[in-house]
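Troubleshooting entry. The earlier prediction with NAP gave an output that would not parse, so I re-checked the input for stray whitespace and re-submitted. Clean input:
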Amino acid sequence: MTPLTLADTLLELLVVPSFARTGYAVRRRLFRWEDPSRWSLAGRTVVITGPTSGLGREAARSLAAMGARLVLVGRDAGRLAATRDALARETGNDALATVVADMASVASVRAAAATILATEPRIDVLVDNAGAMFAERALTAEGAERTFATIVLGPFVLLARLAPRLSESPDARVVSVTSGGMYTQALPLDDLMFERGAYHGARAYARAKRAQVALMREWARRLRHRGVLVTAMHPGWADTPGLAASLPGFRERLGRQLRTPAQGVDTLLWLAAAPREQVAPGRLYLDRRGRPFDRLPSTRLSAADRRSLWASVAAITGEPDLPAA
Ligand SMILES: NC(=O)c1ccc[n+]([C@@H]2O[C@H](COP(=O)([O-])OP(=O)(O)OC[C@H]3O[C@@H](n4cnc5c(N)ncnc54)[C@H](OP(=O)(O)O)[C@@H]3O)[C@@H](O)[C@H]2O)c1
């Protein structure tokens, strides 16, 4: 370990400064990061979910500024249109399509994927960013717990459907936006929908994020030989409308220590647009470095567990299996 990586690892162990603005600022200086504005995505098509607010909105702006054609996937046609118009004004890039999908509905995501496949001859990058935390447990019209549906089921179907088109790209990538909150929870494989015990919104969210990362590792394994580079990142803690709505007390306590949305999405942009050889598939990143999947041995999911989760999610969504080779 070099002195620089040692300093970074120590910072990571402290959690609060690592996830807060300090982590971003220190690592940016330590590792002399290249500015995202230096990367070009001209000629590439990026599909991004949740572009209407917070981190997704900020990422969409930067990706458009890098010259990508964007497919903005959101659940509200009006908010999508307003986002598209504002992005075109802010970046001068008007190669912006909108597709409506409720990520909590398998049927809606399937219809959106069909639209995207019918209208986009190439897809180079998929950014799985939409997410939400809910104070009360509720089921979707399809009978799934809504946190798990939004963070796990919808994104699984979207990637399953877009994977063949992605694999035709010479530099295909998938970036999942997850949460460091996942470190706090194990995922009970026999209770994916939080049917047992008292529901707790932050716990349901952390479990779903853990499932998202476990599936990312499976996708990475299964799509690697098809040329698709699959990774996940977590943004630390960034001041967004979503954070303000779901964790107002936490937001108040952290105050100016919270990252800006631009700081939160730096690693997302790096994974989507930096030279491919800098990135390793199947890893979880924070601030442009791979991080552990677990901080507690009790949260660890074995390779067999991850395969079992994959099989459960494929069965729930009705998506066909995708062998690794
Ligand atoms: N902010 C943080 O510190 C932080 C930390 C860890 C992880 N994250 C993750 O980062 C991602 C972005 O969060 P954020 O903080 O930017 O939150 P945000 O401001 O609430 O933005 C969330 C985005 O997801 C969309 N979305 C939510 N549910 C959806 C659904 N069912 N179908 C389609 N779109 C849906 C929202 O669309 P609408 O505009 O229609 O509501 C919005 O565009 C999430 O995955 C979140 O879990 C954030």
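This one parsed fine. The chain has one domain: 3-317.
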